[in-house]
Every structure is written in structure tokens, then in C-alpha cells.
Amino acid sequence: GIVDIGSGLKHKQIVRLSRPANLTHVLLSLIYRHTGTTVGGEYRYVTVTIVDIHGDKTPKVTVPLRYVGANDQSPVVNITNNVTDLVEGQVEVCVTCGSLTVTDFDHDVFPIRSASVRLLGDNKSFLYQRVKLNATSSLINVTYNVATGEISLVGDASEMEYQAMLNAVIYANTFEDIGGLPFDHVVVVFSVSDGQNTPGTADVIVRLINVNDRPVLLINGRLSENVSFHEGGNPVALLSNSVRITDSDNKYLAGATI
């Protein structure tokens, strides 16, 4: 920062005047200007000392000047691990797995105010899939909207507080046959806001990995059947009418072995 006197005289320069009235006029024209990078919350100190013609000085008068930065930069959300897999049979999986970071250059003066986590999809799919938050914070209030599949986080808190909360997001899918879904992946969108600038966003792709389930053969609800054959008697059926064959993954079967 630079202290200007009148029309451009800068700090450390000595002004020689003969009359106090003129010197008062110069002091009243003091202004402060800053041309460097944004540094919020720091103090500068301007000191003024008057010297007479005999060299006697007045005590220093100090003006503390607190630099208040402008909230002119959006938060930045970065996710290094932006692809994760949910394998059929898993109930849930971490979304960012600790790889999400939140950066806000104005955080010393302007805290993070809110964030959201949204699962892209239609409201019917939210009956069997959703995003969940496996963490709590005394500073951040968390709500979930079933209709939109969105987690909302609201509260003034630091970057690290929001970062920890967002890294605790998990994706859950309870659909029995992932391979039967009309999509093979979902997108989870993270958004962080300071309340004034455009929110910072980033997303993660969760791939849905199908696993082929084997067919199931049950006889009277069991895996075995007791059958009796009498010597010299008529042929008997090995399997009763209560045989049930199911395959949750496939409409058709390739064959059987006896």
C-alpha cells in the first residue's frame, strides 16, 4: 500500500512548510491506496510526526488501517478421483473417497455459506438410489429433498469444515439387478457457494458394474428332493411339480445338465 499526500507525494517524504495551517491542509489530504494482491484481514499502520525548525518532534500519531478485502472470487471445488464404481451386491460406495478439496481465496473475511450434492436423474429412480451424508457438523445444517435427490448444506463455516462434510458423501443403490437399469452410470454434482459469487462446482461419475447372478433351481423350496423307487415297480418322476427355476439377470437360459 501507498500513502499519498495531495497530488502524489509518497510516504517517507519530508514536507517543509512554514505555517501550521498549511501543514494541516496537507495532512487532511492524506489518502491510502492499495495496488497489490488481495490480503483480507491485515492491518497497516500510518504514523505521522511533526517537526519544528529546532528539530523538536511531536509524539507519533498512529492510524491503524485494517484492509477489508472484497468478496470477488468464487470458491473452487476440485475432485482428483472423479470416477468410482459401485459393483452389484454393494449397498453403497463413497463418492469422492477423500479426494475433494474446497478452496476460497476470500475465506478469511467471507466464509463458505452453503453447499449442495445432487444426484442427476428422475424422481422415480430416487426410490432405489440416492446420495447420503455420513457425517455431522455443529456449524452446518443438513437436509435431504426426496423429490429432487439433493442434499443441502447451510451454515457459515470454513473451507475445511465443508470439505470434510462433502468427502463423507456416499452413493446408495438398492436395485436388485443393476444390469436391468436403463443406465450404466450416474452423475453426482457438488456445488459450494460463498453467498455472493457463482458457486464452484465439480462432479463424479459413479459407474454401475453388473455381476451376472447364477440361476436358481429349487424343489419344494429346497435344493434336494427325496424320491423312492420300488424294485419291479413303475417308473417314478424324479422331480415334483413344485420345481422352480429363476434367473434375475437373464430372460433366457442356455441349457441344463442332468
What does this structure look like?
The protein has 258 residues and is mainly beta. The protein has helices at 20-28, 159-166; strands at 2-5, 9-10, 30-33, 42-48, 61-67, 76-79, 83-87, 92-94, 100-103, 112-119, 129-133, 141-145, 150-157, 169-173, 185-193, 200-209, 216-219, 243-246. The strands form 6 sheets. A 6-stranded mixed sheet has the order 7-16-15-10-13-12, covered by helices on one side. Strands 2-1-3 form a 3-stranded antiparallel sheet.
**Pairing-aware structural class of the strands and helices?**
mainly beta
| Spatial shape | rod-shaped
- The number of distinct helices, counting runs of at least 4 residues, comes to 2
Order of strands across the widest beta sheet?
7-16-15-10-13-12
Largest β sheet strand count, sense and barrel closure: 6 strands, mixed
Rounded Rg? 36 Å
| Fraction of helical residues | under 10%
Q: Tell me the number of strands.
A: 18
What is the terminal-to-terminal distance? Answer: 90 Å
Q: Could you list the spans in which at least 5 consecutive residues all have pLDDT below 50?
A: 4-14
Strand content: 35-45%
Q: What's the helix-strand series?
A: EEHEEEEEEEEEEEHEEEEE
Mean pLDDT: 81
Which SSEs are present, and which pair or pack?
Blueprint: E1 2-5, E2 9-10, H1 20-28, E3 30-33, E4 42-48, E5 61-67, E6 76-79, E7 83-87, E8 92-94, E9 100-103, E10 112-119, E11 129-133, E12 141-145, E13 150-157, H2 159-166, E14 169-173, E15 185-193, E16 200-209, E17 216-219, E18 243-246
Q: Can you give keywords for this protein?
A:
single chain; 2 helices; 258 residues; mainly beta; 7% helix; six-stranded mixed beta sheet; three-stranded antiparallel beta sheet
